[in-house]
Amino acid sequence: xxxxxxRSPEILSTEDRTALIDQIHRLLAxxxxxxxxxxxxxxxxxxxxxxxxxxxxLGLSGLTIPExxxxxxxxxxxxxxxxxxxxxxxxxxxxxxxxxxxxxLHYCNHAAALADIASGTQIAxxxxxxxxxxxxxxxxxxxxxxxxxxxxxVTDAQIADLIxxxxxxxxxxxxxxxxxxxxxxxxxxxxxxxxxxVDTPAIRIGGASAIKPALDLAIVALAGEQAGxxxxxxxxxxxxxxxxxxxxxxxxxxxxxxxxxxxLLIEVESAISAARNAAQKLADxxxxxxxxxxxxxxxxxDAFVKVTADAIQMHGGIAFTWDxxxxxxxxxxxxxxxxxxTPNHWRERFIRALERQA
Amino acid sequence: MTDAxxxxxxxxxxxTNWTGDLPPATQQFGRDPRSxxxxxxxxxxxxxxxxxxxxxxxxxTNDQAKIVERAFAAVGAPGAGQDRTNLWANTALAHxxxxxxxxxxxxxxxxxxxxxxxxxxxxxxxxxAAIRTRAEPDGDDYAINGQKVWTSGAxxxxxxxxxxxxxxxxxxxxxxxxxxxxxxxxxxxVRPLRQITDEAHFNEVFITDARVSAANLLGPLNGGWSVLQxxxxxxxxxxxxxxxxxxxxxxxxxxxxxxxxxxxEAGKLGDPLIRQDLARVIGYRMLNxxxxxxxxxxxxxGTSSPIMSLGKLAMSRILHEEARVRxxxxxxxxxxxxxxxxxxxxxNFLTLNAYFTSIGGGTxxxxxxxxxxxxLGLPREPEVDRTIPFREVRAG
Lengths: 358, 396
Hints:
The complex is a heterodimer.
Chain A: H1 8-11, H2 14-31, H3 34-41, H4 49-57, H5 76-88, H6 95-107, H7 114-118, E1 124-128, E2 141-143, E3 146-155, E4 162-167, E5 170-175, E6 180-183, E7 193-201, E8 204-206, H8 211-243, E9 245-246, E10 249-250, H9 255-283, H10 289-315, H11 326-336, H12 343-357
Parallel strand pairs in A: 1-4
Antiparallel strand pairs in A: 2-3, 3-7, 4-5, 5-8, 6-7, 9-10
Chain B: H1 3-17, H2 35-44, H3 62-75, H4 82-85, H5 87-95, H6 98-109, E1 115-118, E2 134-138, E3 141-151, E4 159-165, E5 176-182, E6 188-193, E7 202-213, E8 217-218, H7 224-244, H8 253-265, H9 272-300, H10 311-330, H11 342-359, H12 364-375
Parallel strand pairs in B: 1-4
Antiparallel strand pairs in B: 2-3, 3-7, 4-5, 5-8, 6-7
């Protein structure tokens, strides 16, 4: 299989990378403000097609799709950086679902669907059943020529055109229109989930071995999202601690607040280091990439949860109000802590990877 | 001179002079057993190439000096780069009187005198500016009385860099002076300080009517606090250099494997809770290493990195957590000590010695203040003693 996903470090100079990040940073500052996030999360679909179009026009909907298939042809390193920006602004758009689905299509050598995804006209996502089912509740079966059952908690399924079902018997492609999609009332309002029930002819596009490398890329993307979001939440909190006065002093001058902030800075910087390291190791196909990815998975999740939880405490009453953004970040953090496996799961995977390396 | 000429010249000098057979450096603070070699390096201008030529230097730029350091490192010869790392010589060059500078700087560069630091006191730890050791003028000398603590190398030192109070009627930072105190005199008594680990790496120094010449004053009278800042900056840069070097068992795959091996030996590698603990601790270590790598990469690109200042606080958590996990792995075996119980010795030593990192060189709490204020830009805590005469400051 073409190693396009792995060749990114050579094609992008630091300057190009900075320019890419600048572009998305400007787009999100302009089109994904707190007001936009709330407008989108309160909408019926939880999705803003005009914003998605703008994102696609920057090449981000097909960021890791090879150029030959109409994509931008970038790799894990660029994806991770983009996701830091997306996470920072809590972008409610199917970047993560798209990255996972396109990687899965890629590793299945199923290029036919990629062009429409790259152009932003189609949205794809992945449901899991079997060994990789992080929900523990999906029950998709392949019986005879048919694919039947339910894949639970499928990200962005309510807006997807193409749904891939990853099972121990291989990967199957289903048009969303052929499925029954039941949107779920999600705790994180900025990333929707749905149950996807299928009872269709089984169209197998690849073996189960394609799932792990695709998930690796999704974990790196998710780690970047969490690191970027954690940094933004800490920045907001430190700004507030500098300006909010009680007892005639900025609350950030109190060691009770200052020491929490210092501890959170370690969490944030460690998360960023872990996410970027995992991206680079994946791009290099390094022998210790599994440990690096597992480390990023639990370190970034734990950091994001801790930063958002402490941020609310440090803000005090203002962050207990619905209108303050802190709870939206906490909700995302808690949701991400379940997605594709919990921190405990990834710690176990980390030790197994180290045992294999030794 | 071009870079190539500088490189050729230093390589030729090393080829002529470096034989590679030196006794090892015995300790950080005492007289250096390699001093005849170090004197040669000094006289050739390679100890301090960034310094002016009248002070054993070559007026090199930073980049030119790095060529020298790389050439020395390539053959394993010590003595270069002292204009970056020699705390004592840099402090003396910047602040000593011309007369004293001429006497002391050459000896410091050759490691011919042993040195120690006389900063902390029993009543001035985190709050170093609260020192109460006094220096009083007496003829051409000052008479020194007081007590210092946490002094490494005091027994072998010829001089101590001393901060002492010379004015009690001004706020605490403004009444401190900085001296090179001769240690080999009757009024200076050194007693080893027994630590919780049962080692004695430090000393208490009792100073009773000791004398120091006014010529040994560094910087202006009562201007010692800013001299101290210079010295502390060099000390931190030396500690930073040391932290970048290899450390046995710390960090790399070797250290990670060691903890996993210990769990296997203890028959607990299959315990899911232990595996979670192992992942946390090994993860902390790896994250700290990744942070340091990223900080260095960012600094190499010219971006200043805040991450460097996080390392010590992060390391403190790593050590305390690793001690806890090692103890859990051993269970009742950790009740024992002594050479027949090396695993218990390791775990128990680590448990106690972790405080060396979380207290020494600025407690974790002081580190959090520094990170909060200098990195995150949070305002300082109001200090009630900052503007009042030191004589009126409450102590106890």
